[in-house]
Amino acid sequence: MNPANEPSHRGSWKHWHTDELPLRLGVSSCLLGEEVRYDGGHARDRFVAESLDRWAEWVPVCPEVEVGMPIPRPTIRLVEVGEEQRLIAPSTGADFTAEMQGYSAVRVGQLQAAGLDGYVLKKNSPSCGMERLPVYRGEQRAHKRGVGLFAAELMRRWPELPVEEEGRLNDPALRENFIVRVFCRNRWRAAAARGWSRSRLVDFHTAHKLLLRAHHEEGYRELGRIVARFGQLPDRELYAAYELEFQATLRHKTSAKANVNVLQHAMGYLKEQLDSSEKQYLLEAIEDYRSGLLPLIVPVSLIRFLIRKFEISYLLDQIYFDPHPKEMMLRNQG
Questions:
Q1: Which pLDDT tens digit goes with each residue over 128-138?
Q2: pTM higher than 0.85
Q3: What are the domain boundaries of the chain?
């Protein structure tokens, strides 16, 4: 997917994506508006069902229905029994723990075989919630450290998969972080489908250098060490290690400080092309972003214009400047 009016450099997100391998996301079915909740209703989420829907192919999953629970159904919750957290319907005493655990192991395997780029879970669900669920001891809440049984299995067996709850996606920083990880995961899958080699892995890593540095400097350095071990490890082991560390690095949220460091680093490639007034204008835009007076998109767009104008090849190939569709407006937050 690379329209004629788009540059062909590796820094364009479109360069790495293909219609043959669309963005594919798992999702709790109720978030798309499916009436599968315990009360027969849904929990349609606007960002998921409208904004993301434009870019994603959905794989809807409702663990409770797929495990055989009816619609509507008795409320279930996590209950502490000894050292275990069990999935119980308090009105009937029915225990669904074994069924949900067995189902989850099989279903996650099916999803892995299908290939996903991310997953959006329903918050507060005893099957799908990813964190801070209430756990009961008898009729009393004991603590809020529970994780839905399906979500726990998904994250345990698939640690490199980007996973978020729809509630957390209301936070602009978490939303951008998730979308960056999802598009990076799709780029990785597309590159893997074409077949890996040392040169292709180096190209992939090089294109993501500034993006990685904006998330976590030490993770970026560790990925460089992994790439340098090409030929010292079996190929499959090396690619698996890179992918796991790649996503672990991206899980760190960016910060204004980290973005400023990346932008100033990029400016270093323009020092011979810009006069003093142009440099000052760009520095002021970066400083206004640091101070919260401008959104990130402003200095990024200025530098992107300049690197295209002066054809700075290294920066043209950096995904950092064009990591996802501009229509998502993820860097437009003040």
A1: 999 999 999 98
A2: yes
A3: 25-169, 172-250, 256-328
